[in-house]
Amino acid sequence: MTTGAHDDPETLGRDGLGLLLQVTTLLSADMARGLPARGLTQARASLLWILGEQGPQTQRALADELGVSARNVTGLVDALVETGFVTREAHPADGRAVLVTPTARGTSELAAMAAEYDGLAARLFGGMSPTRLAGLVEGLADVVGELHEALDVDMPFPPEPPRGDA
């Protein structure tokens, strides 16, 4: 892999894609190792993350947010209830609906995941100048936008950690 001012855009693009693939592989390996230790899968963590970011949700809203079927969400919620991460509670305004709500365990895990998220961000980007970091973030935002368009997919995992103010 080469990186120099004289590189042509095609070479830089291939190098950039290679680096993105490495980042994807490393982050996926980290999740594959860390989530099971918490008693979570990626799909369950995604659902829990949404609850942490947006507060209690109906299963229908969760299905829409995750881009999956209601049946799929029912299975995820069943597993999260069984393992103590969430509860199902009566919706205060709609007697037919049920709200999925994080438990104390779920809230604690969300806080731990958010702290790890922030710690990794500080480790990865803390040494970069604001100008370089801003350029990286802008470039990555462009890449994500292009991938959404090219692949016609919405990213189900929220990019920001829950902050507890939902």
Provide structural commentary.
This protein is mainly alpha-helical and 166 residues long. It has a domain at 35-126: Winged helix-like DNA-binding domain superfamily/Winged helix DNA-binding domain (Arc Repressor Mutant, subunit A), CATH 1.10.10. It is built from six helices and three strands; from the N terminus they run H-H-E-H-H-E-E-H-H. It has helices spanning 9-38, 42-54, 59-66, 70-82, 104-125, 130-151, and strands at 57-58, 86-90, 98-102. Strands 1-3-2 form a three-stranded antiparallel sheet. A hairpin with a 7-residue loop joins strand 2 (86-90) and strand 3 (98-102). Helix 2 (42-54) crosses helix 4 and helix 3 crosses helix 4 (70-82). The longest helix has 30 residues, at 9-38. It is elongated. The N and C termini lie far apart (44 Å). It comes from Nocardioides lentus. Residues 13-149 form the HTH marR-type domain. This is HTH marR-type domain-containing protein. Keywords: DNA-binding, Transcription, Transcription regulation. InterPro entries: HTH_MarR-typ, MarR/SlyA-like, Tscrpt_reg_MarR-type_CS, WH-like_DNA-bd_sf, WH_DNA-bd_sf.
